[in-house]
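Class, carefully examine what follows:
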Amino acid sequence: MGEEVQLFEQKLSEFFGRPAICVVNGTAALHLALQACEIGIGDEVLVPSITYVSSYQSITATGAKPISCDISSDSLCIDPVDAEKRLTEKTKAIMPVHYSGGVGDLDGVYEFAQRHNLRVVEDAAHAFGTTYKSRKIGSFGDIACFSFDGIKNITSGEGGCIVSDDLEFLNLVRDARLLGVEKDSEKRYTDQRSWAFDVKRQGWRYHMSNIMAAIGIEQLARFDEISQKRRSLAKRYVEILSSFPSLRLINHDYTEVVPHIFVVQIPKNCHRERIIKFLKDRNIQTGIHYLPNHQLSFFEHSDINGELDVTNDRNQKLLTLPLHEDLNLEEVKYIAQSFLEAIEIR
């Protein structure tokens, strides 16, 4: 961790308009953010159940408990009204997950958090470049955590970052990513190390390498091109799939959202596994984002009040179609038309 990491952080800070700290991956970003908010054993964090397991693992890594919340039927992001039902005296934070690149009712999340004195740690792994009311995600709010793994909107091969205005919080993150060694980041940036140092808090080996940062710098320089490509592919999907009335799409405005994945909600009477096989036979890979975390053995006690009605309903209908830079508009047309054929066969 040296000059390249420092340069990448500077460029990210310019992109967001406030400080950014690079770490080894998006999960580490969430873990460090929660720890620096002094969340730990006995605490609870509100989080939607439909998210990658890293969101939940980052919470339990601090000793806290994830509390599964339901989602909005339109955005598939956390529903602040449902989150309120799950609030207890142990609740210390809420983690909205910006599913597929959209952010849902983010104003509602922050209004809820302010009323109950909660920290907001945005899992923005899917939403690099997305704007909300003309402001970039990460450029405002409490804390935002991003992922730069190999398939995200920009990649550093592996990596992530944490963005915030809270300087005391950021100093805790800087030390914790380097095993808790106090003020070691400044020395690393000049190719030095701390040999006489103190450690006062739990730390982790979560720093980013120069190689990862160098890749990230080049990706960031191409972001306008990358984001326009992703948006144009998503708009092409919408143009074709909107012709099928019983098919439900996430309600995204692709002038604001930079999509990480393209998720469709298949009609009720269709068999998802048959659709997956039909598309696979045409050399089209699909995914399922995600199995709800409250259904995983390790997190089965996270659903404290039950009634995750939207989550449980949508879980059986979600299917992810290909969306990446190497696709072109004709290939998206082929995928979309093949998908519609699969639905008609049921």
User: Anything to note?
Assistant: The first strand starts at residue 20 and ends at 23. The two ends are 52 Å apart (CA to CA). The chain has two domains: 3-221, 224-345.
